[in-house]
Amino acid sequence: MRITRILAQTTLALGVSLAGAHSALAELPADTGIGQTVLPFPPSPHRAYMVDVEFDNFVTGRVVVVDPDQKRFLGMVSTGFAAPSTLSRDGKLLYTADLFYSRGTRGTRTDVLTAWDTSKLAPEWEVVIPSKRAESLTQRFGLSTSADDRFVYVYNFTPSTSITVVDTQAKAVTSEIAIPGCVLSYPVGKRRIASLCGDGSIQLLTLGDDGKETARTQTKFFDPNAEKLVERGVNVGDTFYFTTTTGTVYTLDLSGKEAKILPTWSLVNDEEKKAGWAPGGWQLLAVAPKLNRLYVLMHDAHEAMKWEDPSNTIWAFDLKTQKKVGTLSTEGAPIWSLQATSDDNPLLLGINVGGGMDIFDLKSGKYTGTMEKLHKTATQILSH
Amino acid sequence: MKLLDLLFERSARHVADTTSRRKLLGRLGSLMIAGAALPVLLPIDRTSKALAADKPMAGDPGDPNSCDYWRYCSVDGFLCSCCGGSVNACPPGTEASQVTWIGTCRNPADGKDYIISYNDCCGKHSCNQCACTRNDSEEPAYRPFNNNDVNWCLAAKSHIYHCTVSVIRGVAI
Fold first, then answer.
1. How far is B35 from chain A (nearest CA, A)?
2. For a Cys-Cys bond, which of A72, A209, A350, B132 suits B67, CB 3.0-4.6 Å?
3. What is the pLDDT of residues A42-92, one digit of tens each?
4. Domain limits at B36?
5. Count of the separate structural domains present in chain B
6. What is the predicted ipTM?
7. Pseudo-torsion of CA A277, A278, A284, A288, nearest 10°?
8. What pTM value is reported for the model?
9. Nearest CA of chain A to the CA of B98: how many Å?
10. Which CATH code for domain A228-383?
């Protein structure tokens, strides 16, 4: 009983003293309501959109939007079943090709192309598209836009391959173009689409302003029986760069009516090849156009079966001299996919398989940190 | 189909596979062949038969619940044997997609290369058990029937991916 009385007195005394301290501060006003955050426009060239297919769920996915300079999570959008995603050229829209079932995992399938406002991160409009869009680990050229943002190209795989063309002005599907034997939709200029074919050729489709095919050409590109050319290339304008799994770089100039194949070069010299160096990863290439540099995820002790494995080592190449100019590396979980920003002071962003995003300043060539716990199974990063 | 957070684990295991365990299995296979105690060919399994393949059988060595089991040399996803099915049977209430891709794996028991089809079981979301990614005979996307980055639930009523079986289709010639 005595202890209780002492405790009560002490508590009372403490309460009085705290009340005294509080009385010196003005009371907080009630909040005026609940705000609605909107991201600035135009977006920073460093803003990154990480496409996460969430393979442990694989019914819904997400695109996480981050500021790599401040290392801040800015927001996200929810997507449907491993949705291919891309940004409009004017920076205003993020497109996702979503797939939904009416009962979640079963029922009626509906596919839509969703256009999200990049400031509001809310759907601006959508178009129902044929239920054919490719279902695979998402990659850069599963969804793309024409250089003038007029058309969006959705790559289809049923396993027949075709491209759905969506007119963003009419907000309607204009055509479905069959591309038998070929895959993906690499956008070229305002009205062309390239696809990579199983016989080693590159196919170039030309569209009219009505979004319908007017011409197509096929040009022999590489020998698929001699080597594996990784389809996840990168481009600067209409010049596309690919690497084989052993490190031969193939360059395509697609600015003309027909594809022009430029001379090949190697990421590895004889000594490096002998030491077992070779490229590997998911999005294993990135290009920083303002530095004219190519960045490649590299493996030592490479074996053929590791061509999609992650790595802690990135080599930098000058695209003009085709010489190696540096090495970047991390010590945490290895990196699976790369993206470089397109501005004058570019960042290199890497998706590591531990759930984080590694950040490098490419001017200084320095690793600046990692944003941890950002994703579950992200496959690619988009930037403006 | 890949699970990134487990891919790292898989990569570590992969290194172990290629440097020790696989060689050990390979050597074991050679020894067994030297003993001439094994059947020359394995039977061709069919997905419609729910074979109890979870226990090692003569000529089919290894643990079907383990990523380093020989038939999984090019699998990319969740192993149905860990999801209530088996190496060649879909778990309850899921539907096998008959359109699929194939890989080629060497059986350490007889040293022969087998055509394996990696059919997906579909209609429920990810089983999320025994993620396994191996790309021993995988080809880029322009050879889709040798590519495991595609969701092969294409011939099922619902395309939602659950897990993958590894079915022997015959000996590679």
1. 30
2. B132
3. 999 999 999 999 999 999 999 999 999 999 999 999 999 999 999 999 999
4. 4-171
5. 1
6. 0.89
7. 70
8. 0.87
9. 12
10. 2.130.10.10
